[in-house]
TrEMBL record:
Keywords: DNA damage, DNA repair, Hydrolase. The keyword Hydrolase applies. Signal peptide: none annotated. GO terms for cellular component: nucleotide-excision repair factor 1 complex. GO terms for molecular function: damaged DNA binding; single-stranded DNA binding; single-stranded DNA endodeoxyribonuclease activity. It comes from Amphiprion percula (Orange clownfish). This is Excision repair cross-complementation group 4. GO terms for biological process: double-strand break repair via homologous recombination; nucleotide-excision repair involved in interstrand cross-link repair; resolution of meiotic recombination intermediates. The lineage of its organism: Eukaryota, Metazoa, Chordata, Craniata, Vertebrata.
Amino acid sequence: MAGPLLEFETEMFLSLFGCDGLLVVAEGMGVDRILLQFMRVYSEQGSLVLLLNTTKPEQEYFTEQLRVEGVTHLLRTVTSDVQSAERYNVYTEGGVLFVTSRILVVDFLTDRIPAHLISGILVYRAHKIIESCQEAFILRLFRQKNKTGFIKAFTDKATAFSSGFCQVERVMRNLFVKKLYLWPRYDELIPWQTFPSIHYLYTTIRHYLDPLWHQLGAKTKALVQDLKVLRVLLLYLTQYDCVTFFNLLKSLRSSQKNFGSNSGWLFLDSSTSMFVNARSRVYRVPESKKKLKVAAEAEKQKPGCISSSMEA
């Protein structure tokens, strides 16, 4: 049995449930549990939801999980074994359906599937949507015939977006979604929904500026270099421990070269806040010392202490 969602998993689910988008999580953070939660919600006769990009073992796993949890309207699989005349009845019965891409394309084109009755589509392994032409075509047909149904996409392969030009934008365009939810490995439950990310912003800028690089001024080059530094910081923040990240920050601050060549971001208040927070992740003050310090400060503020110090 999968068990209830954890706090951060609940945050993921509610965010995507409230607004269509692409959910990208770090590997091992349970993207399949989020997808399973959506299946629980829509496993009823009142809704028709299609699930794309799943393998047969995964379909069996999801079905078994819902069966163990007592879900009555279990997932159904539509393959070539189901006759074309019977498929319409299967669609109208509702619930979550596993349908092969080839059958879905045919049924959409022949209007065998009631597109206006589809509540939405769940897309697993969303990073493969560009490679898989059939799934992208299905989503296009669905959006043409149904303007209100939801599209929610899931993947835990963030590295798949690092290759190619504007890979995130291309995937989201093929998915017909406008919002991106990024969940890297954080110590705190802080969702990162920045779009486009610094990585893709830097890649895009370099793509356009490289042919003109020799014509750019020193200030422009410094700004681009700062983007590169911030991209490295973001990588260290999400992929390395707090000590390694803090050491990188210290090396940036102590380097005379960085102080002379950066565009000024090291002197901003946000930069100071970053250093303070990074240090607090490494060096934590015990609660007992915090209480003693607060008590000492409060003692100094007492009128008796003030008058005594003045008399002295």
